[in-house]
Design brief:
Order of helices and strands: HHHEHEHEEHEEHEHE
Radius of gyration: 15 Å
Helix content: 25-40%
Largest sheet: 8 strands, mixed
Structural class: alpha/beta
Shape: globular
Strand content: 25-35%
Amino acid sequence: MTENGDSRGGASDVDWDAEAASFDEEADHGLRDPDVREAWAERLRGWLPESASDVLDLGCGTGSLSLLAAEQGHRVTGVDLSPAMVELARAKLAGRDAVFLVGDAAVPPVGEQRFDVVLVRHVLWALPDPGRALRRWWGLLRPGGRLVLVEGVWGAVGIPAEVVSGLAEPLGGRVRVERLSGDSLLWGKDVDDERYAVVVTGD
């Protein structure tokens, strides 16, 4: 959820440790509103496997999506560049089957571990080489795994769906674009910018 790495439009200028305390005040960050929370939970049910799986949540922020995934029975590893965000995520998922690591989402510190899902929200747009990051993330998947990339274009920053799907095509999986702008429950308000998910599924 946090924008890690070098900037596209100033993401690296943000002090995410300083932002951590108020990060969850945004409706789509903290998911405190029951309707917003359920809207994201429903999306995750469509994006994640039905059976218990290993999910890598990159740029996990305070762990709101990680918590939804854990509540649906998945084992979660979260990575964020901000130690303060990771501390909040650990507290939010205390007692759950979840581990949180401080590290760069573009180069996750997970060693040889492999996952069924790599879940990334609002991170890819901020990376200096998104194609390289996608290839690295694809390599972290087990056979048949999937990438779930939630991104958008907000004013002068972001990355269009066509760019992400184009970068994903050479990975060799099935690429699907799901438009999210029209679902105001996800954001806690009506939005008129581009918001979407690209799901890439292996064989």
